[in-house]
Design a protein that fits this description.
The protein is an alpha/beta fold. The chain is 39% helix and 20% strand. It folds into five domains: 73 residues, ATP-grasp fold, A domain (Dna Ligase, domain 1, 2-Layer Sandwich); 113 residues, ATP-grasp fold, B domain (D-amino Acid Aminotransferase, Chain A, domain 1, 2-Layer Sandwich), CATH 3.30.470; 123 residues, 3-Layer(aba) Sandwich (Rossmann fold), CATH 3.40.50; 140 residues, 3-Layer(aba) Sandwich (Rossmann fold); 194 residues, Rossmann fold (3-Layer(aba) Sandwich), CATH 3.40.50.261. It is built from 24 helices and 31 strands.
Amino acid sequence: MNTSTVGELIESCPSSGNGVIPEDRAKRIFSACGIPVVAEKAVAPDGDPGAAAVEIGFPVVLKGCGSRILHKTDAGLVRVGLANPGEVRQAAGEMIARAGADLTSFLLQPQLQGTRELVAGVFRDPLFGPVVLFGLGGIHTEVLNDTVIRIAPLSERLIEEMFAELRAKALLGAYRGARPVNLEAMKRILMALSDLAVAYPAIKEIDVNPILIDREGEPVAVDGLIIVDRDRGEVRTRTPIDTRAFMACYYPKAVAVIGASGTLTKWGNSVTANILSRNFQGQVYLVNPRGGELMGRPVYRSIAAIDQPVDLAVVTIPAAKVLDLIPELRQKGVKAMLLITSGFRETGGEGAALEARLVEAAEEAGVVIFGPNTMGICNPWIDFFCSGVHVYPNPGGTALVCQSGNMGTQLLAFAEQQDIGIRAFSGSGNEAMVTIEDYIQVFEDDDKTSTVVLYVESIKDGKRFFECTRRVSRKKPVIILKGGRTGKGSAAAASHTGAIASDHRVFAAACRQAGIIQVQQPMELLDLSAAFSSLPLPKGNRVAIMTLGGGWGVIATDLCLENDLSVPDLPPAIIDRLSALLPAYWSHGNPVDIVGENDPNIPRTALEELLRWDGCDAVIHLGIHGRSILAGRMLDSVGKSDPAYPPARIEAIKKMVAAMEADYIRHVVTLTERYGKPVLGVSLHTNEDMRTVYRFDDCRYQGVFFSSPERAVKAVAGMFRYRQWLTGSSEA
């Protein structure tokens, strides 16, 4: 790209009140960027388009152009196949009558013969900046909507991914006697658009539609426009939060609960009780203007009355009183404030104004605000549970941040129940100062964090979010659930490119590029967290399935194929070895149906045969775990129906079955370590004692069991997507 020429063209091109640089001038910019464009002649409305058409040669295409004319075809200002000067002049007269003063020029082009039409373009997302789009073009672009997008700047690998993701990618190959699309030429077009948008922030949208593909496979731009916004201001970004504030919040040596209360229904009571009921070793001071005693501890009338240093102030007092607290925190040298209190931006205009004043005062005082309107935090590693929710997951590697208190409550409770270890948790609340990007950045280099799990509804700094997550993903998985996925972008977009853009598509593209595993349901967050923290990554997408019944095997196979996993055929050698183990009527294929045999050695041996197989990257085994529950119920029925059956014998059998099942889980973990492949179980039945993760302190990996085939399959698929991204990221 000739940057000086392009810059001069952009600055010299006049734009209308809507910022549109019309087609003829836009194409001059495209050409200067190395994008092939159709030869054409511009004619003034009072000129003679018929004479100009003779110079081009018939047949020709006539277009009526103007900065106020965005979609010429829709406005009836495109005529094709004009065969002589008279037809051209007649068509021009009709266009003048139709468009009036909006028509500022005619464009004449030779009528090219093409086999396919593509679209390429750029739109500037308010969060992530320039986004490049590619797909099927022409007048049906918005209807067909077979397009893919990536955040700029592009790389060759990203462009190749765009080609591969197109639903109609077969059209890029040889087509009805025409040669395949010159993909190297298309790469140059997309790279030029990416470079153009990155280099010139004033560009709001670029639309190159259609790009006609001739019979030799060569692309040429036959239409396009550029929309600029020269007055667009730079988005203000907040300085990242100092890591010391996080240490004060997650590893406080002294905590002051401001608003501590003896009333059960108040947060000041619930949070205080939660902290004090655990084995937190730091100092805890209770503050309330009434003084006195609470929970057997003295209550200070103000934080200033505490004669020892305080790292973290946990604040539950009414919103209107929080601003007056800042000078006291400053004087006390408090580094961080966990602001549980609601009544700020989430309530509307007045609350937003109060929050803004609070942030300004806190920044000046050197106090970092976590929240407001947060359900709290926890750090199980030091038994610090500073939240209104009394759930206590074990220490582990999953860092969990939620922009919803209810979602956080649900996920923490599930983590506790299923023994999914938590590194740290925060309900991020309004994120007045500490944003989701700050949390991501602080967990990046935290040795205890193995997986970052996020529930987000909005982000404040798209570029920083994108850069942080892409950097973190190279070290550890980032899993995200986005609320509000159905939200639309602007419905008044001026170009085809802008019209088919939507917030959720841009966010999904950013996640894909950054290596984030995006999920659709809340439980998938912790399912994937359990898998990532407990199992090795699969090296490929080939799955072997072992099942206690044929139906589950069929379902699991369908789910695998629907989630881009393969279920390869078994080689003859493994079939022969399994045939020596199983009855003659077993499935003789993948899935391996072990047909309900009760011999405990059969699933153990069959599982190892599958893991030894070079053609499989992961194993899902269904129905072996959880049989102890059904066996226990059967034994209970025997005891009730046959009084003569010795109760001690029943209990002995129950213990034996439970021991066999525990031994099987241990065997699964041993095989996982031996072969370095993930093994995921699906339980035949579950009860309150069943867990997702079964821990063995002397093992590198752990046992992972889900309650349904779809949960297991989605976990494998997520792990495989992450492996793919890691491989591609290292190659880029």
